[in-house]
Amino acid sequence: MSNAQEAVKTRHKETSLIFPVLALVVLFLWGSSQTLPVVIAINLLALIGILSSAFSVVRHADVLAHRLGEPYGSLILSLSVVILEVSLISALMATGDAAPTLMRDTLYSIIMIVTGGLVGFSLLLGGRKFATQYMNLFGIKQYLIALFPLAIIVLVFPMALPAANFSTGQALLVALISAAMYGVFLLIQTKTHQSLFVYEHEDDSDEDDPHHGKPSAHSSVWHAIWLIIHLIAVIAVTKMNASPLETLLDSMNALSPLLASWWLC
């Protein structure tokens, strides 16, 4: 199969960008509205726009991952998801009276969901489809060796401090340590011990799969550009929707006593 044919089959019409663009227009025109039905509609449209671009981010990252192979493919997917998560959390924390523990609680939830829920669900689906599964235990060990110390330092260690939290200086030190540890992990993953992250039972049959074609170099640039565009779209919608979301949450908190009274009656 020619490179041109391979490039074509990995491309899709970017109609999903319509939803975040529409959400941005609506937020710009009516984002300051305090009317509850309008606020609900705006938040629903923003949610659709965010999910639409988020799925497109994952799709383009997946194509690039097939192009680059391991370990760079996993790195692109991971960084794309991390950028989405950080942008969503940061937008919420930067608006209104966000709880200072939002980031910590969110990180804890992500670790629990990924290491427990997603891994278990993936094993279940993989066992159902392939019966026998092969796993790269060497790569898994490296991920866990990096994950556990970071999780303990960031989530557990503050509870042992007198104020149950980091001071500004301690927080900066922990941030530097965490960045250094992740930098060392990336160095191990991409340079010094790259072979540990390569799946030895890699299935090469993806080359004949129309859903997993390896794009050409030109098509890779195309996917990279659209990946960045959709990331920017998610961040923009999230940032502009922070105020309407806060208004919606405040309205729900104000309505909860009324709903409880109605339920008791």
Task: Walk me through the structure.
Pfam families: Na_Ca_ex (PF01699). It is a multi-pass membrane protein. One of its GO terms (molecular function) is potassium:proton antiporter activity. The chain crosses the membrane at residues 15-32, 38-60, 72-94, 106-131, 143-164, 170-188. This protein has 265 residues and is mainly alpha-helical. The protein has a domain at 1-99 and 208-256. Helices cover 74% and strands 0% of the residues. It contains eight helices and no strands. The chain has helices at 3-9, 18-30, 36-68, 72-93, 102-130, 137-156, 168-192, 217-264. It is globular, with a radius of gyration of 22 Å. It starts with a helix and ends with a helix.
In short:
The chain has eight helices and no strands. The protein is mostly helical.
List the helices and strands and how they pair.
Layout lengths: L2 H7 L8 H13 L5 H33 L3 H22 L8 H29 L6 H20 L11 H25 L24 H48 L1
Helical proportion?
A: over 70%
- Rg: 22 Å
Number of strands: 0
Low-pLDDT parts are 1-8, 259-265
How would a textbook summarize the main sheet?
none
Alpha-beta classification: mainly alpha
How far apart are the termini?
69 Å
Kindly state the mean pLDDT as a whole number?
78
Organism: Escherichia coli
Domain Sodium/calcium exchanger membrane region: 40-190
Membrane topology: Multi-pass membrane protein
Transmembrane segments: 15-32, 38-60, 72-94, 106-131, 143-164, 170-188
